[in-house]
Design goal:
It is built from 4 helices and 9 strands, in the order ββββαβββαααββ. The chain is α+β, with helices and mostly antiparallel strands. Pfam families: NUDIX, WHD_NrtR.
């Protein structure tokens, strides 16, 4: 009681949603499922679900990635909490969002005849439920920013890669061309990759040097890329 007036606190329901990015067919793609119940039945949506009792959001997103998508042990990062009062027609439901980065070879999408999980190009999204288009756009902004000061792009590349493959991945995500000579010189100066003893042979090209990231864990760069 305060000043003779009682304050009412109405706890909202809480969900978690995952923006799962990967590179496939020279395109940045996101994993979506098809909603099978109202609201927005038939619309595509991000994989997600409600928190269960006493469950931290980090545990919930790991559970959902494993149960709904069939992936675990990938790079995830909490993105933002979307809490617009009108974002869900069922009532006051906020969502704690995460984004995940998965190399294409590690993405084994579980077959589901109801939700039909599949990859969509970020540039050509279908109609989306709730505010999921806004969430994907926000996640892409975060990813582009992370590329400037961390090594997280390792999560989207094969364990061994060429410099042209690395540059192409940056260009796909950033949506712009990069100067080849400047890119290689600047990236090698960051000291986050090392040469391997292998080269990649092509039918019409000289063998290209293969590289690996020194760390397969997120680290901040000593200087902005």
């Amino acid at each position: 009681m305060k000043n003779g007036k009682e304050k009412l606190y109405w706890p909202p329901a809480v969900t978690v949603d995952a923006v799962i990015f990967t590179i496939q067919e020279n395109d940045l793609k996101v994993l979506l499922i098809e909603r099978t119940s109202e609201p927005f039945v038939g619309y595509c949506a991000l994989p997600g679900g409600f928190l269960v009792k006493n469950e931290p959001s980090k545990n919930a997103i790991e559970r959902i990635l494993k149960d709904k998508v069939g992936i675990k042990g990938v790079y995830t990062e909490q993105l933002y909490t979307f809490d617009n009062l009108n974002r869900d027609p069922r009532g006051h439901i906020l969502t704690v969002t995460y984004f995940a980065l998965v190399r294409a070879s590690a993405l084994k999408i579980k077959s589901d005849e109801r939700e039909h999980p599949r990859l969509y190009a970020v540039k050509k999204l279908p109609r989306l439920a709730f505010d999921h288009k806004q969430i994907i756009e926000y996640a892409l902004e975060r990813l582009c920013a992370k590329l400037e000061y961390t090594n997280v792009i390792y999560s989207l590349l094969p364990l061994e890669f060429t410099m042209p493959q690395l540059q192409k991945t940056y260009e796909i995500i950033l949506g712009k061309k990069l100067d080849k000579r400047n890119f290689i010189k600047k990236f090698l100066s960051l000291n986050v990759v090392r040469q391997t003893s292998k080269k990649l042979s092509g039918p019409r090209r000289r063998p290209a040097q293969l590289y690996r990231f020194i760390s397969q864990k997120p680290v901040e760069l000593k200087k902005f890329f």
